[in-house]
Amino acid sequence: MNFQNSILLASVLLSMIGVSCNTQEIKTNDKKPNVIIILADDAGYADFGFMGCSDLETPNIDRLAKDGIIFTDAHVSATVCSPSRAGLLTGRYQQRFGHECNIPPHDLGMDTTEVSIASAMKQQGYQTACFGKWHLGKQEEYHPNQRGFDEFFGFLEGSRSYFPNKKYDEPGNPHEIQHNGEHVDFTGYLTDVLGDKAIEYIDKQKDNPFFIYLSFNAVHTPMQATKEDLKRYDGHARQDLAAMTWAMDRAIGKLVNKLKKEKIYENTLIFFLSDNGGAHSNQSSCLPLKGWKGNKFEGGHRVPFVMSWPQELKGGQKYHSLTSALDIYATAYELAGGKESPGKKLDGTNLIPFVKGENKKAPHEQLFWRKGGMAATREGDWKLIRLDNYGCRLYNVSNDLGETKDLQNEEKFQMNKMKQSLENWESNLMNPLWTEDKYWNEVTFEIHKALMENRTSTVHSPADLDKKKYK
Ligand code: CA
Q1: Model confidence pLDDT, tens digit, residues 383-401
Q2: Which residue of 21, 89, 159, 416 sits 20 to 30 Å from the alpha carbon of 379, by its own alpha carbon?
Q3: Ligand 1 mean position to 214 CA, how many Å?
Q4: Where in the chain are the domains?
Q5: How many CA atoms lie less than 13 Å away from 69 in the CB half-sphere?
Q6: Predicted confidence (pLDDT) at residue 29 exceeds the cutoff of 80
Q7: 100 CA distance to ligand 1 centroid (A)?
Q8: The CATH number of 366-470 is which of 3.30.1120.10, 3.30.450.20, 3.40.50.150, 3.40.50.2000?
Q9: How far is residue 116's CA from residue 122's CA, in Å, rounded to a whole number?
Q10: Which residues pair with 154 in a beta bridge?
């Protein structure tokens, strides 16, 4: 029997036992995987079913987590929105290019000499789109369309109303909803709209490898939800957050269903994570972690983090080693066929060999954080926090996840080693290109001091500072 006849016979036999063997499907599976990053905003570490939450409902995100791998010790590179996104989209510590602080001033944004993940994916033949919050600069040169995204539907600022709002929705206002620079009058609830736009895009691009950055502003303030979703949680202790989370989960569920309907879910690499810890102002919970958005305790930077790629990665797993959102770039780019970094040296690493068990080490031996006078580093389970003009704390999160027991006197060697490695890392950074409001800096300092002393902070905003001063 010649080769062709063998194939034919094999196909006939396979079809007889119900296994489809058409070339179309083989082709689909050989295709480069689509990549989708789903980013939540200010969502708490503990606020998803798959993270153990019992009062907020996230059935669709939980299903995604079940199909994929849950990373229990994954971190973003900053504890506030803009620098965290700069790290995520460049795969590099954002302090390397001065993007250390939040809210770029009007004329600045993410360094244009950095090659964004979207540009990198485009180089590999991907269609690229960003939906939602940008927060990486408002000037033309920082616009998503200039940073590798073929399509942008969303807003340039850091937050906005979830409903049409006269204050924001003026053409030219950086909060306006726009499509590739053109003003859009949207209707409905923004979380639903962003999800639907991503689905429309998938419908257009389903036959091409695509890269989507779906950057929800949920569950950032203002706390706004639809009447129907609020009604569902009538009497709930965290009614607004529960409703907003439910809406985000609904949008993600619809997106996943679309991928399944088009039979591309299996070969789509999906990341789900939050851009920083739960905020103090949005009813979120980071328990059992200490701290929240904006500070260097685990609650500020350890985030819910899922990676799903059913075709290649066994679902239902948990991965416990130190991982970073900086790894998303390297992972996506290598799967797309990229070899060397398309720009400067990446700080992240391809996660696939680690989760497949081919590499037994941790993706990172160390991670680092710094914003202004507050810095931190993790080395394995050790955690060092350094507050300028105050001092340091050393914790071991393996048996003290809540970071309450300072070990700096007992573990002098470890303490000095980590202080030194933090300084070594800092020697490769540049000074921040912009700084934060001096009152907010003082607020953050006071919060760190209180948490380092295991006290409850009485200061949460500049208004609290003023009150103290006037006492
Ligand atoms: Ca955020």
Answers
A1: 999 999 999 999 999 999 9
A2: 89
A3: 14
A4: 32-355, 366-470
A5: 22
A6: no
A7: 14
A8: 3.30.1120.10
A9: 10
A10: 132, 178
